[in-house]
Design brief:
187 residues, alpha+beta, two-stranded antiparallel ribbon, globular, 39% helix, single chain
């Protein structure tokens, strides 16, 4: 089931649904049986698309913008909230959505990603990560199972996957991005 609710003023013409939004909707509808997708289109081509999607009992809200791609809210969004996770393309978003549906089916909870989940999302094998980190595969396997590790180790692992680590501190009344130790020393 796909519905589209479009906010329009008399001066604004119909907005074309972006190909990334359509691509994600097609993947979800082609994979899951019990699917509902509600699109809330912006008033302009460069505005925000809000997407409520449910599949197999799992429900989430997505935000799509031309500049940032998809934002995923893993809890009910409130006014001023920002997405918990961001994805630039619909294929990677769909992989993560599938992980969330599977997690919900198993234990009805949404949890932050573990290292092995991030690796699976990127689509990289342990042996490749090990080679890029200049360690053996057993060391990567052990790393992915640890409960406590150095920030520098996490940074090396994420860089081996082609990403970067950002550090954020969240308090009751504010949240800030923090410099990683290497960045702080050179500043």
């Amino acid at each position: 089931m796909l519905t589209q609710q479009t906010r329009r003023t008399e001066a604004v013409a119909a907005v074309t649904t972006p190909s990334d939004v359509l691509g994600f909707v097609e993947l979800v509808r082609g994979t899951y049986h019990d699917v509902t997708v509600d699109l809330d289109a912006p008033g302009t081509e460069t505005g925000e698309w809000w997407i409520d999607v449910s599949a197999d009992g799992f429900r989430t809200t997505l935000l799509w913008t031309m500049d940032h791609g998809f934002g995923v809210f893993t809890s009910e969004p409130g006014y001023g909230d920002r997405p918990d996770e961001c994805y630039r393309n619909h294929e990677r978003l769909f992989r993560r959505f599938s992980q969330l549906v599977e997690s919900h089916t198993r234990d009805t909870g949404i949890h932050p990603l573990h290292l092995r989940d991030v690796r699976a999302l990127v689509g990289t094998q342990q042996a490749v990560v090990a080679d890029r980190m200049r360690v053996n595969q057993a060391a990567v396997s052990k790393l992915e199972s640890r409960r406590d590790m150095k920030l520098s180790t996490v940074t090396s692992y994420v860089e081996a996957l082609g990403g970067r680590v950002e550090l954020r501190a969240v308090f009751d009344d504010f949240a800030v991005n923090m410099a990683l130790p290497e960045e702080a020393e050179s500043a």
